[in-house]
What does this fold into?
Amino acid sequence: MSQNIAQLQEEIVEEFAFFEDWMQRYEHMIALGRSLPEIDPQHKDDDHLIKGCQSKVWVHAALEDDKLVFTADSDAIITRGIIALLVRVFSYQKPADIIDAPTDFIDEIGLKEHLSPTRANGLVSMIKQIKLYAIAYQTQIKS
Amino acid sequence: MGFDVTAIRKDFPILGRTLKNGKPLVYLDNAATSQTPQPVIDVIVDYYSRYNANIHRGVHQLSQEATDAYEQARQKIQKHLNIAHAHEVIFTAGTTHSINIVAAGFGQILQPGDELIVSALEHHANIVPWQMACERSGAVLRVIPMTPQGTLDLDAYEALLNDRTRLVFVNHVSNALGSINDIERIIHQAHAVGAAVLIDGAQAAPHLVADVQALDVDFYTLSAHKICGPTGVGMLYGKEKWLNLLPPYQGGGEMIATVSFEKTTYADLPHKFEAGTPNICGGIAFGAAVDYMNSIGFDQIAAYEHQLLLRATEGLKSIEGLTIYGDHDHKTAVISFNLAGVHPYDVGSILDQLGIAVRTGHHCAQPIMTYYNIPGTVRASFSFYNTFEEVDALVAGVKKAQQMLC
It folds into this structure.
């Protein structure tokens, strides 16, 4: 049985609780960013681009059975690290569960500054985009 | 008395802050906004504590006191930039607003086929309003190209000038790179073909003083918050003849002489361009900021900042794989750089964790980033209240970021 969104978020919060300072946290984020699976190059286009003021984010979603699978990328490595966490939490989940899911675990693991509404990195828009994909596919499933 | 940075820093309460991770603030984002010294903060508090009132129309004492203080601030700015008449100083919301006043006015009087010249080194605020004016009027926008060193190609500029050129608008100092442009030559050559010149002085104002009469410039703009004043207030200098010629930007109170439903006549300068209740406190504090900067002395500021720049340049250049954009001698204390293979956002994020405030991104100057084919840069911009220790902290921080990110 795969984990649900709440369990995955809790797991991440526990994982980050081990770190003693910001540097370990960031080193982990950078490592996560490096390990993020590549997005299919054909999805790294303007249609999948979320423009931040500074770093770019690409997000693609596809339905496998009744679950959504996300692939994503960014040109900044720390942004990629956060994307890796979001993909881990939201991929292979049902659209209805994604729509209702909270995202405050990002605050809890001490990465809040990346979600401030500075338009810098596209992450706020990425979360919105993930939810929009979920809403779109939910509508598709129902119809 | 020599330049005493320790004493100066005591004027800035914010510089004593400790940030997350227990790091002391190292504020190197001065080109975005400068910090505010206590004497300016005191003026703001005093205004709201003692004589907050609407200006120019009230007969009561508070209104008269506020009006006097506001008009004195205008005179301080006039004197600071050696402007011929106080009524040539228009209070605005900042440089962006100042440029929009001129661009919107010209948008109404330009003819199809008229030519405007912009530079490749401009902030978007000195590009977009003119594109809007061109759309409205049918005028054509020409661009002075930049060089790999981050300066303007003034021979190419000379070739762009012709008898259809109406207006040239260039920044005094590039916000993204710190390059000081040769505005004397730009103005002289524009005038030779009968074109007017607007100089965006926002990034020059913290580092040097423009003498608008000696420059013979037609328009000059600046923002108070770049020179230790508050945000949301700035000024537009325009030669009297131009300000009289341009139509008003906004209608409303304050900017009228008489109003009837048949015909309204506009007020004289400067009020013609100051519709509505202005940022009164901001204007007064702007004047106080000019006083504060002059009490430090711009010669001293320039000399000290140049030492900071030299030390930072030398330190950053010692880092392998670091590229400085606009690496030349004729610049203010601004360094735009990247680490090879690293996104500027990542460098900025690590520096933020270390308490070091820099700007990352395209700095509202996307054409420069396109020219260098980069997503943006990390920009460290220094002020007279920064220290050599802070410069060293930046260099060490960039090394740490490189170690973590590469």
